[in-house]
Amino acid sequence: MNTIKELFKRSLQEFDNGNIVKSKELAEKIIFLYDATEGYYALGLIYAVQEQWEKSIINCLKVFEIAPNIVDNLNRLGISFCQLGNIHKGLFFFSLGSDLGDKYCIENYNYWIKKN
């Protein structure tokens, strides 16, 4: 049986192995079967890597609604908003991650604040 945990683990493994298509299929299966946050998390990651910023934001915001303290999701939201030119909103998400002590959010906050 495919549990959320098993499908999520497989999706991330496929992603790590460079099989983005299979990773995406598994993430979409999680959403279809369970409408679970894990599926949106994986899709947010996939779309960010593909630089599909709007789709990344849609999926990452769904994760943020349920689990607002996942720092790599906050970082991904910050990057996605900044890439689309909404620096203020991106800095907001970086600052949330920075408050949780995430070094990548801190680095990205400092980068974008100087760039702006």
What does this structure look like?
The protein is an all-alpha fold. The chain contains seven helices and no strands. The protein has helices at 4-16, 20-34, 37-49, 53-66, 71-83, 87-99, 103-115. Helix 2 (20-34) runs antiparallel to helix 3 and helix 3 (37-49) packs antiparallel against helix 4. The chain is elongated, with a radius of gyration of 14 Å.
Largest sheet report: none
Secondary structure category: mainly alpha
Head-to-tail CA distance between termini: 49 Å
**What is the number of E strands?**
0
- What is Rg? 14 Å
SSE order in H/E notation?
HHHHHHH
How many helical elements? Answer: 7
* Percentage of residues in strands: under 5%
Estimate the mean pLDDT confidence.
Answer: 97
- Percent helix: over 70%
| Overall spatial form | elongated
**Unreliable residue runs:** none
